[in-house]
Specification:
The structure holds two protein chains of two kinds. Chain A is mainly β. Chain A has strands at 4-7, 10-13, 19-25, 31-38, 42-51, 54-57, 65-66, 76-78, 87-94, 103-104, 108-112. In chain B, 0% of the residues lie in helices and 58% in strands. Chain B is globular. At the A-B interface, strand 4, strand 5 and strand 10 of A face strand 4, strand 5, strand 9 and strand 10 of B.
Chain lengths: 113, 111
Amino acid sequence: EAQVTQNPRYLITVTGKKLTVTCSQNMNHEYMSWYRQDPGLGLRQIYYSMNVEVTDKGDVPEGYKVSRKEKRNFPLILESPSPNQTSLYFCASSLGGGDQPQHFGDGTRLSIL
Amino acid sequence: GESVGLHLPTLSVQEGDNSIINCAYSNSASDYFIWYKQESGKGPQFIIDIRSNMDKRQGQRVTVLLNKTVKHLSLQIAATQPGDSAVYFCAENSNDYKLSFGAGTTVTVRA
């Protein structure tokens, strides 16, 4: 089954404790992206990757890092999480960039205390 | 700045009626538009897309209309069912590498 898989689905942690949210897709998609979703703000892009070793900032990249060492994986790293990063996070992938449908994972709910 | 927005944050529809969800966009250079459905606890799910060389596209029970003159996008759902209750997002490609999303419309289907 074609899917985007995120882990963990839920995480409660404390300020400053580094965490990584993994994302993996099995569709051989070149493009992958991370979004955060906050009430009333819709989906805002954090980072995206056009291909292996190619990443770029989205609209809200501050406090986040990503890497794309393999085509299928695109982890999101919070080096020093803060409470304002409490949010619902989605990973997505597509064949292309902005002109192809993106397929989303089921989300990761992060709570930073 | 550029933005994608939906006209109404909520929409209540009687089961069996048709639903119309509206979206306004401001980037006249956008050439690809897409509608997503998000159910509680899940990620956005692709419904239908349309490119700027078209003004209408139909899927199963859904139709997307694009009016480039007034920069307006709409999603029509025929014979709305309880399973259509969800949040609906429109998105546009603000450049070659990203989609910009609106804030969403919550559709509630009344029995």
